Amino acid sequence: MSASATRVGILGGGQLGQMLGLAAMPLGIECVFYDPAPDAPARIAGRHLAAAWDDSAALARFAESVDVVTFEFENVPAESLAFLAGIRPVHPGVRSLELTCDRIREKEFLRATGVPVQPFAPIGTRAELDLALAAVGPHGVLKTRSLGYDGKGQRVVRAASELEPAWNALGRTACIYEAFVPFDREVSIVATRALDGSAVVYPVVDNLHTQGILARSVAPAAIPPTIARDAENYARRVLDALGHVGTLALEMFVADGILIANEIAPRVHNSGHWTIHGARTSQFENHMRAVAGLPLGDAGMPEFAAMVNLVGGVPETAEILAIPGASAHLYGKAPRPGRKVGHIGIVAPSRETLLARLADAEHLARRVNRLA
Amino acid sequence: MSASATRVGILGGGQLGQMLGLAAMPLGIECVFYDPAPDAPARIAGRHLAAAWDDSAALARFAESVDVVTFEFENVPAESLAFLAGIRPVHPGVRSLELTCDRIREKEFLRATGVPVQPFAPIGTRAELDLALAAVGPHGVLKTRSLGYDGKGQRVVRAASELEPAWNALGRTACIYEAFVPFDREVSIVATRALDGSAVVYPVVDNLHTQGILARSVAPAAIPPTIARDAENYARRVLDALGHVGTLALEMFVADGILIANEIAPRVHNSGHWTIHGARTSQFENHMRAVAGLPLGDAGMPEFAAMVNLVGGVPETAEILAIPGASAHLYGKAPRPGRKVGHIGIVAPSRETLLARLADAEHLARRVNRLA
After folding, report:
1. In this predicted complex, what is the ipTM?
2. What are phi and psi of A85, to 5 degrees?
3. Which pLDDT score, from 0 to 100, does residue A168 have?
4. A27 in contact with B, Cβ within 8 Å
5. Are A280 and B322 an interchain contact pair (Cβ–Cβ within 8 Å)?
6. What CATH number is given to the structural domain containing B132?
7. A328 touches chain B (CB under 8 A)
8. Overall number of domains in chain B
9. CATH code for the domain in which residue B288 is found
C-alpha cells in the first residue's frame, strides 16, 4: 500500500479551511493554508502562509512544503492554480475549477453530462440581450458569469424591460441569463470522490436561502425516494465527468417533481456542514481523505440533522448549547453584516424532534443575524 | 446569561489535551497547554507553554493568560495546582485530584460514597504486611499508592509468601494491597458534571486490557440494564461527592453480577475515546463545555461504537480507513514500545457489524502493537 499524503496545502483559509484542518489533524495530516488575510480563520488549524494570490515565489514555497494541494475557495486565479499544478498534484483537478468558475461553461457541462438545467443564455453584448430574452423568457435571473457567491452579482428579472437595467446594474459585464425556476424546494447533495474513482454520496438536504445566503439545511430532505435517487445519480455523474477528487456540492431546485441543477460548488459546501455531527464521516474528513489518497468514509447518517447559519452576529455560546442536540461552530471571524461567522449544528433521533430544535435554533439566529 | 470562558489553560499536552483542543476550537475556545515536553502532541491544537511543573513564574504567566485552568494529566504536583488555584478557577476541583492521586484515599472515598470496592489495606511498613494479608487474603494486587498508570507500579500476588517480594520490587514505597477480584468483565463509565451541578453519563463500556494497557472498548457494554443503572448511579454519586466539574471515568469490575469499583480517573479517559464518533457529544467536548461554564451536550449514542488502541506502532492510515465505519486518530507521537500513539474508532449500525469491524481493527492493531 503506497503511503498517503501527510502534508496538504489548502488554498484559502476561511471557515471551510478551518473545518478541513480540524478534520485533518486526527488523520495525522498537517495542513498549510495559503491566504492573504493575516487573520484567516483557518490559521488555528494548521500553518498559515499569508501572501498574495499572484505571488509566485510564495506559491512555489507553499507547493514545495506539501505533498498535494487542494482549495476551499474557488476564486483562486487560474494562472496560480496552473502554476501550482506544475509543482504538486492539485485535487480536485484544474478541470473542476475551470468548469465551475464560469456559469455558462458550468451549465453546458451539466447539460452535456445528462443533468437537467433550466434554459439559459450568455449575455456579453447588447445584441445578446434580445437573443437571451427570446431563448429564456422575461422571467429570469441575471448573474455575472464568474466570481459570484452568496447571492452577490445577481439580479432577478420579472419583465423583458427589466433585463437591460439589470445588466447595467451588474456593470454590463459578461453574464448568464437563466430562466426563473418556480421551485417547490431548494435542495443540494454533497458527494466525495476518491483518487481511485470510488465515491460516496451524502443524503440530499433541504435548503432555505434568505437574501441569497443559505439560512438553514435539513437532512435528509423530505422528498420522494425517486427524486433522491435521481439526485444521487446526478452527483455521481458530475463527479465522474469532472474526474473530481474531493468533495463537491450540487445545488438543485425541485420543480413539479423534477430536479433542475442550479450550480456546482467544487469544494466542501455550507449545505454539508450538518455532516460534522450528523453523518458518520463529515464532508471535511472525506475531502481530506480523498485528496490525501485515503479510502473514503461512510456518508450515511444515523439520525436526523440540521444546520443554521449565523450571519453577521453570534449569540452567547451558552444560548446555542442550551438547545438539546445542538453544537456550536464559531469561526473566529469579526461579525460584519452578511458575513457568515458560525453555524449551529443540530441532531435529533426523529424528524419531529429535529424540527422543534431547529425552530429554537432559527429563533436564536434571527435574533442576532444581520444580513445586510 | 454570564459569558462563558473563551481561554482555557490545560495542564498536560498529551493526546488527551490534543483531543480537548480539537473539541474546543469549534466552540470558540482557545486552549493553552502547559507541558514541559517541547513536542507535546497537543501543541497543534492551541498555544503551548513548555516549562517545568514547578516553575512558578511560568505557572503564573500561564494562569494569567486564561480564564480557567483544567488538566488532562493527573500527576500534576499538588503544590503547582494549589498555586494555580490561587490565580484562576481550577476545574475539576483540587479535591478531585487529591482524592484520586492516592489510591488509599480514593478507595476510602468510594466506600464512603456508597460505591462498592474490594477489600484493601495500606502497606507502608513491614508490620503492615501481615495486617494487610489478614485483611485482604493471599491473592491480591499490590500497587503504589500514587503515580501509577497503564499497569505501571503494580504486582500481582498469588500467595502470602509473594507479598513481601512484591513490595520489595516496588521499592518498599507506600502501597495499597487490594484483594484480587475474579471478574467476569472490566467495564467503565464516563460522565461529565457541569458548573451548575447538572451531569450527563455515557453508556457503560466493556474494556479489555493487555499487559495493563487498555486494548479496546466496546459501547454499550453487554451487561444487564440493572447493572448499567447501578453504574450510572455510582458515576453520579462520585461526581456529586467530589463536586467535580468536567469529565471523569470510573473503572469497575463486574464479578458475580455485582459492580466493584477499581479506580477513578479524574479526567477524560481512554475508555471514552469512542465518544468522538460514537456519541452525540464527545467526552472531550463535554469536558470543555463543563470547565468553560457551558451547558452539557447529549451523552447518548445513536448506534454502536468501539475503540482499539494503537500502542507502540501505527499501521498505514489507509489500512485503518479501509475498515468500514473506522476513523483514525493518530497523536503525532514517536512510536515506542508501550506508548499509546493512536487509536481506531469504529461505529456500526448493529452490534454484529460492530464486532466484525472490531475484529478487523484488532487484527491490524495486533500486527503493529509493541506493548513492551
Report:
1. 0.94
2. -65, -20
3. 95
4. yes
5. no
6. 3.30.1490.20
7. yes
8. 3
9. 3.30.470.20
